[in-house]
Amino acid sequence: MVAAVVTAIAAAEAETTGVATGAIQYAWVIALLPFIAAPLILFFGKRTPGQGAVFGIAALGAGFVMALAVLFHFVTGGGTYAPEGIEWFEIGPLHLEVGQYVDGLTAVMLVVVTAVSLAVHVYSLGYMHGDVRFTWFYVVLSLFTGAMLTVVIADNLLLLLVGWEIMGVCSYLLIGHWYEEHENSSAAIKAFITTRIGDVPFLFGIFALIFATGFTTTNIAEIGESIAGPEASSALVTAAALLLFGGAIGKSAQFPLHVWLPDAMAGPTPVSALIHAATMVAAGVYLVGRMFEVFVHADPFVLTIVSVIAAITTLGAAFLALVQDDIKRVLAYSTLSQLAYMVAGLSLGPEGVTAGFFHLFTHAFFKALLFLGAGSLIHAVHSNNMSDMGGLKDEMPVTFWTFLIGSAALAGVFPLAGFWSKDELLVGAWEHNQWLFFVLLAVAVMTAFYMTRCVLLTFFGRYVGEGHPHESPPVMTGPLVGLAGASVVVGFLGAPQLGAVFGDWVYFEHPHDADFVFWVAVVGTLAAAAGILGGYRLYRERRERDPLMAFPRAWNVLQHRYYIDDAYMRGIVYPIRDRASAGVNWTNQHVLDGAVNGAAWVTRGLATFISWIDRTFVDGVVNAVGGLTGATGGLLKYLQTGNVQWYAVLLFAGVVVLTIVFVQIA
Amino acid sequence: MTWESSAITITTLLPIVGALVIILVPRDRDRMVRGLGILFTGAALVLSIAIAVGFDYGTDGLQFVLDVDWIAAIGARFHVGIDGISMPLYVLTFLLSFLCAVYTWRFVPEPGRTKAFLALMLLLETGMAGTFIAFDLILFFVFWEMVLVPMYFLIGIWGSANREYAAIKFFLYTLFGSVFMLLGFLALYFSGPDPHTFDLVKLTEFGAGGGFTHTFQLIVFGAIALGFAIKVPMWPFHTWLPDAHTEAPTIGSVLLAGIMLKMGTYGFIRIALPVLPEGAQAYAPWIGVLAAIAIVYAALACLAQRDLKRLIAFSSVGHMGFVMLGIATLTEIGIQAAVFGMVAHGVITGMLFFCVGSIYDRYHTRQIAEIGGGMSQRMPKLAGVFAFVAIASLGLPGLAGFWGEVMALLSAFRPNEALLDGQVGLFRVLMVAGGVGTILTAGYFLWMLQRVNMGTMPERWNEHAFGDIHSVEWMSWTPLLVLILALGLFPRLIFGVSQEAVSGIMAVLGAGG
Amino acid sequence: MIRLPFVLLFSAFLFSAGVYGVLARRNAVMVLMAIELMLNAVNVNLVAFSSSLHDVGGQIFALFVIAVAAAEVGIGLAIVILLFRNRASINVDEVNLLKW
Fold first, then answer.
1. b (16+ CB within 10 A) / e for B482-494
2. Counting Cβ atoms within 10 Å, is residue B451 exposed (0-12), middle (13-18) or buried (19+)?
3. Does residue C50 fall inside a structural domain?
4. With bands split at pLDDT 50, 70 and 90, how would you rate the model's confidence at B310?
């Protein structure tokens, strides 16, 4: 309803000033819509037909249309739109303004996020049907989308951080959506804490950048100017770059903070598609791209570190993807690997930014497609394990064909989306960092291999699971088809032969011409073919034992994820959670509180002693006087016989004595 | 007497009047007693909001001042007033007290005796509110001590099993600090301007003019700071807090965490820093170190707690660590962060104690292991509110807990260069420690939620009838929940109010902030 | 005119008889009577000195003593009667409740 009004405003604006310039002024509305939808779903969702999902879908639908209009602004050659923000608050010298910063990168991200989120919103109508917390699911989903859009559109780092952390919480809530299982809630905590370990350096990086501006602003553009200025300290900028990259490592699940992402698959599959494949995990990459000015002005070794981490992650994750049985974990490790691909692109320097983001763009579509396809399979067979699937291509044709397209796109098969983006990265790597080129090439082979394995194990052979799987309902297959279509076409946006228009939208400083190196394209295609052929040879027939088990030692290491998770748990989590905390608590109870209680005990002891002194000596004298008097009286009382005549005798005796005395004296 | 000069006095003393009225009501008119409690706290809240509305936010001076002779023999005056630092805390005092009175409409802890309970609560309210507006050291001290007695009885009579130990510990520990504080005040009186005065404004002017010698400042700051530090409580003077919180009734915990702890940090900002700037300069690094220790230490201690209420109590120690870290930087950002942190902590932790109280009310246990999880299944709303507040407490951006923490850390990145020259490295280390603390904080809160909210409810509760959030609870909680969100989205609500007053303090402290 | 020493000797004898009666008799009535003897011995002395010294004050005192003695006997006998009612005895040896 509100969404409709806002869209109407935007539309009216578009008529008067032209679609492009009109929509871009209201780009912030795209981010606001889901935030409006979320409370509507929360408070009124249960009372509306469709249990509230309609609010989210309407908001995202309107947002998607507006995002396309914003992108159109750049398609038609429009420039960056970054108006003055409205004042948020000021604290000391620091002024914070809330505003939007819309450039080509923002526009592309807006389209990606709204498109994938819309698909997921629709898809979840089927996937989450009958879930006990259906409405709540949509609340968090909307909230997440709003937060992600805030990150994308924010013109200052603190606002970005706000969106960044809200995403983290939504991710936490959605991973733990089925919190009845302890495993799920643990995965949720792991995701939140691990990313937060990255967020703290990120926060400090922001501090360093605020410092660089003389504590005046957090505006991204102004920070960029300060850093590019002559007085910026190189050491400070280098530190800031490293710290910012820490945030990216956490959010984009790069080594060594990658451990949370595979576990995050505990959440519902649409969530995995949206948050843990297409959008939130890409936010780290987005952050590096958005703050690329910092990385450019930092010491060059920062980008070397970035490339090394990317290489470790992409290769390590690709190996892990080879041996997974859980289909979502295959895709999760693949996501890790591909995110590192993007990071590798950024590590190439200004020329690599376009390539990295092009891969982010294409990857969002086909990876979301793959996850939703996997969700469709899981929905049908009620198991995540590929060992419970097989032979599903006839029962589930739509899922099969779309999944096949997604897999081929991921593997880099010409002319699907993945081919173009991967090719651009390989070209860039060959030109700027040759050892990285070979790493990326090796990963390309492995990617093709494990996706082939995945497709063969699920759709071919014979069905080994229970029950009779059947195709998912249209609300689920519809988004699959849509995303499959996107996976086919979006690659052409970056095809050099077609002008590589993507490079005109997303670039650092100035557009770079996309080179097309024919032999690299051939090598890339050969790599994909090699992977597919290898996979086909090994998994053509279904076997009891995975052929890769022929290398038991390597298999074992991979099954234990290189023992990294174990090391973290045993080396960090348990010592802190169980031992350090117990130690601190013991210290608190026995040392600090012991000191307090000890002081009280000593005081009481002293008081007891003083009290004893008082009773024994001071009061003793008083009591002694009383006691003496009492004792004397006790003796004298025997004179009191009760016999009156005896008293009279004494009286007379006394008188006689006194008389004698007086007489004597006289 | 105009409204301008009498508003604060009327508002502050109204609860005491209420307490007297309540004492006169017959014991068996229980409903009427509770109604009167709501009426008087509500009236005081309305008056305090009227003061806030009439406040001029553009200047750093005192407003609504009343300055008359009080105890002429010792030169103590009844000098009250309000500025941008007092204002948020002052209104928060009345808000939380009112919400507690509303809560009492349904929940009076064992052993009942509503009359005494509410009368003590109203007395407490006056004491707390008075502390924030007193500008005479003797008056300040009177209000400061006035708080102790009602809280002592609230804990000692309406507390849980180990209440007497906790009440006595609370009382004596605080009193121990107060003695040093009083000695410090007397030292200020006798070494201050001629004629001797307890007036805070005059003492601040005198101190800013370099009236106190360096050695004197070191000694007296130490004495006064000890009194405040115990109240905050700073590590390692915090051990009374978990016991007091654990044993106190819900209302007591809410007011203790929500407002009483702020009296200590407020004292630092209002008295210790401006009157003794050189003392502050000398002690700031130590305060910063203790604050950072408190942050990490409290987070670790929280991980080890098995009692829900004790866990929240320890989390307070950590959050007050952030406030003290901000103060220790002696920067405008740091002190602004401290003021924000105080209000945010009051709202959030007050709300957390409400939640824990309601959980206890339903389960009759506070042991996390006995609750056993699954609260979301049977009481989704209570679990949702609890999770919301816990997440706010761990410092999620967009909610109230964030700004105080992040701005305190930011100020530690660049402490006051003029005053803390050479300490920048130390404060950056403290900042990193604080950052580690935020991770641990997230850890223990999420772990707590996992063990309380998530999972499945143990079978032993199957027969137990659980009611979700009651309408009285909604009424007393909604304002706090709204505030948590509003302060997070519009931090200007606090920063804007305290800005001018903090600038004034910075002018006293010296440039560089 | 009888010489003063004779009168004094007489009164001394009378007084001694009274003292003996007070200290030695068991019967409360007898004790009371012995007290009367002692009082009258005093009266004799008073009158004798009054006469020999020509001072009428002594005789006035004697009149006072007679009045006091009358009152004393009245109260004393009342006590004796009550004592008899309560204890069925007027033996003073048996009346020793007021002791340690």
1. ebbeebbeebbbb
2. buried
3. yes
4. very high
- What is the Cα–Cα distance from B68 to A470, expressed in whole angstroms? 86
3-state helix, strand, coil in chain A (%, to 5): 80, 5, 20
Q: For residue C52, which phi and psi values (nearest 5 degrees)?
A: -75, -30
How far apart are the C-alpha atoms of B413 and A207, rounded to whole Å? 7
Strands A86-91 and A94-98, by their bridges, are antiparallel
What's A97's DSSP letter? E
Please report the ipTM that was assigned to this predicted complex.
0.93
Report yes or no: A215 at the B interface, CB cutoff 8 Å: yes
Closest CA to A506 of A77, A68, A103: A103
Residue of C23, C93, C96 lying closest to A649 (CB–CB)? C23
Residue C62 lies in a domain: yes
Tokens found for residue A418: 């993945």
Region A595-612: mean pLDDT is 92
Rounded CA-CA distance A248/B37 in Å is: 53
Amino acid at B323: V
Q: Do chains B and A touch (3 or more CB pairs under 8 A)?
A: yes
pTM summary value: 0.87
**Among residues A50, A65, A55, which one has the least CA distance to residue A34?**
A55
- Domain of residue B345 covers 3-512
Chain A residues whose beta carbon lies within 8 Å of the beta carbon of residue B333: 91-94, 215
Q: Taking Cα atoms as reference points, which of A544, A375, A409, A545 lies closest to residue A490?
A: A409
For chain A, counts of helices (H) and of strands (E): 30, 2
C-alpha distance from C47 to closest chain A C-alpha (Å): 23
pLDDT averaged over every residue in chain A: 88
At A467 the pLDDT is 78
Tell me what pLDDT residue A21 has.
60
The band of B459, judged by pLDDT with boundaries at 50, 70 and 90, is confident
| Interface touch B302/A208, C-beta < 8 Å | no
- Is the model's pLDDT at A512 over the cut of 90? no
The confidence score (pLDDT) of residue C1 equals 65
Q: Does residue C41 fall inside a structural domain? A: yes
Exposure string of A616-637, with b = 16+ CB inside 10 Å and e = fewer, is eeeeeeeeeeeeeeeeeeeeee
Query: C8 at the A interface (CB within 8 A)?
Result: no
pLDDT for residue A13: 47
Residue partners of A36: CB distance under 8 A and separation at least 6: A2, A3, A59
What is the distance between the alpha carbons of residues B490 and B493, in angstroms, rounded to a whole number? 6
| CATH number, residue C72 | 1.10.287.3510
Q: Which residue of A has its CA nearest to B488?
A: A162
Nearest to A641 among C19, C23, C99 (CB): C99
With contact defined as 3+ CB pairs under 8 Å, the chains touching C are A
Q: Is C24 contained in some domain?
A: yes
As for how many domains chain C has, the answer is 1
Q: Which residues contact B287 (CB under 8 A, 6 or more apart)?
A: B225, B234, B324, B327, B328
**Residues in chain C closer than 8 A to A652 (CB atoms):** 19, 23
* B150 within 8 A of B123, measured Cβ to Cβ: yes
- Mutate which: A35, A41, A91, vs B, most B CBs within 10 A: A91
Q: Are A155 and A102 in contact (CB under 8 A)?
A: no
Q: State phi, psi for C89 to the nearest 5 degrees.
A: -160, 150
Closest to A38 in 3D by CA, of A164, A166, A136: A136
The answer to whether residue A8 scores a pLDDT higher than 70 is no
Q: Domain containing C37: what range?
A: 4-94
- In the stretch 162-181 of chain A, residues with CB closer than 8 A to chain B read 162, 164-166, 169, 172, 176, 179-180
**How many whole angstroms separate alpha carbon B207 and alpha carbon B484?**
37
Q: Which residues of A210-242 are buried (b: 16+ CB within 10 A; e: fewer)?
A: bbbbebebbbbbbbbebbeeeebeeeebbbbbb
Q: What domain count does chain B have?
A: 1
